[in-house]
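Chapter summary example: a protein plus nicotinamide-adenine-dinucleotide.
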Amino acid sequence: MTSATILVTGGAGYIGSHTCVALIEAGYTPVVYDNLCNSSAESLARVERITGKRPAFVQADIRDVARLDAVFAQHKIDAVIHFAGLKAVGESVEKPLMYYDNNVGGTVVLLQVMQRAKVNNLIFSSSATVYGDPASVPIREDFPLSATNPYGRSKLMIEEILGDLYRAEPHWRIARLRYFNPVGAHESGLIGEDPRGIPNNLMPFITQVAVGRLQKLRVFGGDWPTVDGSGVRDYIHVMDLAEGHVAALKHLLAKEGMFTVNLGTGQGYSVLQMVQAFGKSIGRDLPYEIVARRPGDIAECWADPSAARDLLGWSAKRGLDTICADAWRWQQGNPEGYGA
Ligand code: NAD
Ligand code: WQD
């Protein structure tokens, strides 16, 4: 067992809270740093119920140099997993400066503080959005990169900043992890995705329809060139994703260098297949209607996950049945999320 201490920015959020569970279970000590702009500290109380350990928590902003400096002075941090950021694509189009300030500016501040503290091990949350509209699927890491909105551009910029930093200071160890579509919840049903307002993403929308908070799903487009006309994505169980971070961390702490890998399953499902699988899981059909395409969407997106398998010895284990069952357990047990 290891006792390395890991600073988890954005650790109270959806992926961060699940990763805290995986870190604790793997013997690491997470220290969570989060301003709670899109989450609740209740998630960390739930992490404690699952693991028996409550992560140390600092409620502060990654752009707050003094607070960050203080965390590095107070804790002997071995590595940073950097989840903190804003992630709503539509909002990023409305408020680009807010996204660049928070995501890009915040990351630069974090890197400067790490540099001063001589902590040079970083795992960064990137996204399949950096592939833009891919020419083909499955998507490999060496595909061309592009972005179609400020959110995606902020991820691309950060990837490039990290590349520049590594070239200038090759003693840094950096993992750029490109997530596909994270879904599901911890099997306990105690932690899960808790979006504010009406969900933008498919899976929380489906579960909120199922629990009666929303009336029916709108399927964005029935005329995509896909298996059934609806969009196809690579939905990865959030605990698989969390375990992918532990695998990346082990690799990073053992071996010098920078690496960039997809974290996906390699399997695509359409919106209609997701609706059907979820309906089967809960034993009733979900109401939906097919409407116009959502601007900015793409037809298909799924990963070639072999680089992560070969480099990290990690691959996603949980299938669609588990995803649906776990998402439903969380939604049913917490119909109003953490805010209830
Ligand atoms: P989330 O919103 O649940 O978690 C992000 C956390 O960061 C929140 O707890 C929020 O309060 C915190 N945060 C935001 N700005 C901050 C700041 N300036 N200072 C301190 N804390 C701040 O989102 P998530 O789904 O858990 O995503 C985590 C990361 O993964 C994000 O960087 C996101 O862009 C990336 N990502 C997410 C997805 C997805 O679909 N969920 C896909 C690819 C990449
Ligand atoms: C999935 C599919 C929709 C909602 C987004 C970001 C991406 C990444 C993950 C962070 C698509 C369809 C959705 C609905 C629908 N995030 N859909 N009705 O768009 O693949 O990716 O989240 O990095 O950057 O763009 O995910 O869950 O929004 O959509 O029909 O109400 O479901 O059109 O085909 P997406 P999503």
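Key point: The two ends are 37 Å apart (CA to CA).
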